[in-house]
Design brief:
Oligomer: single chain
Radius of gyration: 13 Å
Helix content: 55-70%
Distance between the termini: 27 Å
Order of helices and strands: HHHHH
Structural class: mainly alpha
Number of helices: 5
Shape: globular
Largest sheet: none
Length: 97
């Protein structure tokens, strides 16, 4: 599966988001998914068009969407990094901050 094939419903199911909550689906569709795609492109130092050619980055994208949804508050109790996402994208030589 490629990132372009991931629908808001797929991302919501992966992140255990109630798809019946329109506000959460709107947040996911309009803010989180585009931000996750842009962030993934920046982390891998690849254009957005190129990240869609790497099927394994779909998992990183789903993890990143779930991570962004789970950590959407202004303050985080645990400011740790998500190592699953980092490991999935590390082989593309991105600048991991």
């Amino acid at each position: 599966m490629r990132i372009s094939q991931i629908t808001p419903e797929i991302a919501a199911n992966f992140a255990n988001i109630d798809t019946g909550e329109e506000a959460d689906m709107l947040l996911l569709r309009e803010i989180i998914m585009p931000a996750a795609k842009k962030h993934l492109a920046e982390m891998t130092a690849m254009p957005i068009s190129d990240i869609d050619t790497k099927e394994d980055l779909a998992m990183a994208y789903l993890c990143l969407c779930a991570f962004m949804y789970d950590n959407r508050t202004m303050s985080a109790d645990n400011p740790s990094r998500n190592y699953v996402i980092e490991e999935l994208i590390a082989k593309y030589g991105g600048a991991l901050i």
